[in-house]
Amino acid sequence: MKANILIILGILAIGLFFFGCVSNIAVTEIGMNVTAKGTSEGIVLYFNNIPEDTIHLNVSLWDVAGNDYRKAFFDSAIVLEGNKLSELMETKTLLCPFVKNCHEYEIVITFWYADWDTEQYKGDTRFIVNAVAGGGISPVNDPFLYFNDQNNALVLSARPVFYEGIAFSQESSLFFYFCMGIEDNKKKGDDRIYYGGFTANTNELICDVSDIYDIYNEAKKELGMTGNEGLVIAGIVGCYVNYGNFRWEVGITKTTEVTVSL
Hints:
The chain is mainly beta.
């Protein structure tokens, strides 16, 4: 259970790389660069000098207009490796279609490297570019996410519906659910503490998230916290969608925050 605990003070570690610099180009010390540009189809990334020893690449897009715990969850993301990574290294462009028109996005790009002869991991490079989407794809319906009466399961009101030609991926489950606990920590000088790490993949519109309470209780022990004031919980759901030759992870919606008595 300990390995599943994500305890982040102030802001979530997954959002550590929000440097406050709005730029549409990033350059690494090895000369690789990525430029982001809004187009009528969404946001296009242009890559130059991708290192040959890259074994996989991750791109995640975060809506700048999102709320506080948006940092726990991207709006859309993709992981490229194998043939898909080879295709990107050849074309040097990646269309990011699952964005909202006129919204600004922070785009986190991470490269992982390995020695191809020994398959030994060598390190990674991570940086951010910003761009405003000139178009994009979102569900045409408006599903919403909520907790059941017992606050131990997340319920999605309906399947998201995309326009014709956008299909759910058949490579894995349809949906992924994420649940986190949130607690004010102002007494210790921090804004909030997040308890996360519970993620489930399923084809169903309902997902049991009761393990979040075990995660919370273990986290309290780790931090030496006392008291039983209750816990604020929030949930997020996304889906796996095919677009062209790539499979995207697309955020659908999130719950309002709910206070649970423990």
